[in-house]
Amino acid sequence: MKARQAVRRDVAAINELALEAHAFHVKGVPGVFRMPTSGPANLRYWASALKGRNTAVLVAEDDGRLAGYVQVGIRDAMRLPVLKRRRFGYVSNLGVGRRWRRRGVGRLLMQAAHQWLRQRHIREIELNVWSFNRGALRFYERLGYRFLSHRMGKGLAR
Questions:
Q1: Contact 44, 51 (CB under 8 A)
Q2: pTM for this structure?
Q3: Which helix (H) or strand (E) holds 59?
Q4: Best label site of 32, 53, 139, 140, fewest CB within 10 Å?
Q5: Helices (H), 29-149
Q6: Cα(43)–Cα(15) distance, rounded to whole angstroms?
């Protein structure tokens, strides 16, 4: 198993893995997520994600097949008088195919994302996890991530 930067020929496989992960989110938070109605739009999204200057899509490859992907980038903190100016890494997406779960693929991808950021002199990384996704929360905590904030929401009566 190895991690590498994704290339154009990986787009369809990344999209399949992403749709699998996304279906889990649709089920977990149906008021926020929906399944995409256009396959080509999703493919265009992933193709464009490969071209970013401050972003990367990294993949885990197992014997020629993609086992997972991580989308990582560099962000600048909001410019507010009360916040320090800083740049940090951000994981937008992480997905591991069902047959490769619990085999170290997620850990390999996150290590690759960390390395990609270190090569760009970034020393902090953040990500968002939906609260229903207990497995992901445990995974990131095992990697040393800690809560920085809790985002809350509430439906309003009409």
A1: no
A2: 0.92
A3: strand 55-62
A4: 53
A5: 39-49, 105-119, 134-142
A6: 6
